[in-house]
C-alpha cells in the first residue's frame, strides 16, 4: 500500500467516524458541546499518557472519555441550579479542565511523545507512514490508527440503528419522547459517551481542536440540503468522505498538513452549498405564483 493510499484511507475513516454522531448533535442544536468536550478531554489524555507512557493506551481512552462526560453532567447540573445559563455552564467548566491539561503537558510530559502541535492538528500524516502500519505477513492492513476508528464507527452505527426511533423523536420533540415513555435520558447519555469517545479516539489523527470541524461541519452542510433524517445521515457521510479526499489532495499539492486542510475544505464546501441553496431559494421566491 502506498503512502498516499494509506493517508487517504485514514483521512476518510477519521472524517466519517467523526461526522456520524455529529449528525445528531447538529439536529439537537448541541454542536458547541463538541467544542467543550474537545477541551475537557485533554487533561484526561495528558494524565493517561503520563501514567501509561503512551497516547494510545486504554487507560488514556477511559480517563479522557470520563472527563468528556464531566462537561455534560457538570453543565447540566449547573443549568438545573438556575444560577447560570446552559451555554455559560459549559464555558465555566471546560476552560479550567483544558488549562490543567496544558499545564501538565508543558511541565510533566517531556518523556512522552505528545506536543502542542499534536494537540492542535493531530499527527495524521505521521500515522500513515509504513512504520505505523498494521502488517500481517506480507499483507498491509493500513495504518494502525485506522482500526480503532473503524471499530468505533461500527459501534456508532449499531447504536444509532438500535436507538434510531428514540434519537429522532427526542431530537425534534423531547416532550413527545418523554410522553411516549421513551428512554430518552439513557439514550442521550449513551450518545454523549460515544461523542466523548469519538473525540478521544480521533485525537491522534486530527487533534483535540480540529475534531470539532470534522464532527459538525459535514452534518451542518447536509442540513442545508435535506431535513429528512435518513438522507441527512447519508449526505453527511458522503460530504465527509469527499471533503477528506479533497483536503488531502490540496495538502498533497501544497505540501501542507492534511488535517487542517480537511477542516478548511469542510468550511469551503459549507460556504459553497450555503450560497447555492440561498440562490436557489431566492429564485424560487422570484417565480410568479
Structural class: mainly alpha
Helical content class = over 70%
Distance between the termini: 58 Å
CATH topology: ABC transporter involved in vitamin B12 uptake, BtuC
Please give the count of helices: 15
Please state the CA-atom Rg, rounded to the nearest Å.
20 Å
Number of strands: 2
Q: CATH-wise, what's the superfamily?
A: ABC transporter involved in vitamin B12 uptake, BtuC
Characterization of the model:
This protein has one domain (3-286): ABC transporter involved in vitamin B12 uptake, BtuC. It is globular, with a radius of gyration of 20 Å. The protein contains 15 helices and 2 strands. It has a two-stranded antiparallel ribbon. With 289 residues, the protein is mainly alpha-helical. 78% of the residues lie in helices and 3% in strands. The model has no long low-confidence stretch (mean pLDDT 82). A hairpin with a 2-residue loop joins strand 1 and strand 2.
Structural topology:
Blueprint: H1 3-27, H2 31-40, H3 42-52, H4 58-80, H5 86-108, H6 116-121, H7 124-127, E1 133-136, E2 139-143, H8 146-162, H9 164-172, H10 174-179, H11 184-201, H12 203-206, H13 211-225, H14 229-254, H15 258-286
Antiparallel strand pairs: 1-2
Helix pairs in contact: 1-8, 1-11, 1-13, 1-14, 2-4, 2-5, 2-13, 3-4, 3-5, 4-5, 4-11, 8-11, 13-14, 13-15, 14-15
List keywords for this structure.
two-stranded antiparallel ribbon, ABC transporter involved in vitamin B12 uptake, BtuC, mainly alpha, 289 residues, 2 strands
Offer a quick outline of the entry:
The chain has helices at 3-27, 31-40, 42-52, 58-80, 86-108, 116-121, 124-127, 146-162, 164-172, 174-179, 184-201, 203-206, 211-225, 229-254, 258-286; strands at 133-136, 139-143. With 289 residues, it is mostly helical. Helix 14 (229-254) crosses helix 15.
Amino acid at each position: 500500500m502506498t503512502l498516499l493510499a494509506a493517508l487517504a484511507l485514514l483521512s476518510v475513516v477519521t472524517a466519517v467516524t467523526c461526522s456520524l454522531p455529529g449528525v445528531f448533535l447538529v439536529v439537537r442544536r448541541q454542536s458547541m458541546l463538541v467544542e467543550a468536550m474537545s477541551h475537557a478531554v485533554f487533561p484526561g489524555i495528558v494524565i493517561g499518557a503520563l501514567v501509561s507512557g503512551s497516547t494510545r493506551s486504554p487507560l488514556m481512552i477511559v480517563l479522557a472519555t470520563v472527563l468528556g462526560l464531566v462537561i455534560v453532567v457538570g453543565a447540566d447540573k449547573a443549568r438545573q441550579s438556575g444560577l447560570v445559563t446552559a451555554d455559560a455552564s459549559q464555558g465555566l467548566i471546560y476552560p479550567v479542565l483544558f488549562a490543567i491539561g496544558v499545564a501538565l503537558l508543558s511541565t510533566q510530559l517531556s518523556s512522552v511523545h505528545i506536543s502542542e502541535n499534536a494537540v492542535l492538528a493531530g499527527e495524521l500524516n505521521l500515522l500513515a507512514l509504513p512504520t505505523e502500519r498494521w502488517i500481517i505477513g506480507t499483507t498491509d492492513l493500513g495504518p494502525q490508527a485506522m482500526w480503532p476508528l473503524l471499530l468505533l464507527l461500527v459501534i456508532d452505527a449499531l447504536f444509532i440503528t438500535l436507538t434510531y426511533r428514540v434519537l429522532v423523536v427526542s431530537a425534534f420533540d423531547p416532550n413527545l419522547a418523554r410522553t411516549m415513555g421513551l428512554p430518552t435520558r439513557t439514550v442521550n447519555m449513551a450518545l454523549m459517551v460515544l461523542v466523548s469517545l469519538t473525540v478521544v479516539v480521533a485525537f491522534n489523527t486530527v487533534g483535540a481542536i480540529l475534531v470539532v470541524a470534522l464532527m459538525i461541519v459535514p452534518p451542518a452542510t447536509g442540513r442545508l440540503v435535506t431535513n429528512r433524517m435518513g438522507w441527512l445521515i447519508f449526505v453527511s457521510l458522503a460530504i465527509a468522505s469527499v471533503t477528506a479526499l479533497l483536503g488531502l489532495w490540496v495538502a498533497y499539492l501544497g505540501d501542507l498538513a492534511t488535517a487542517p486542510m480537511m477542516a478548511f475544505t469542510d468550511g469551503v464546501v459549507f460556504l459553497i452549498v450555503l450560497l447555492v441553496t440561498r440562490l436557489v431559494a431566492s429564485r424560487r421566491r422570484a417565480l410568479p405564483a
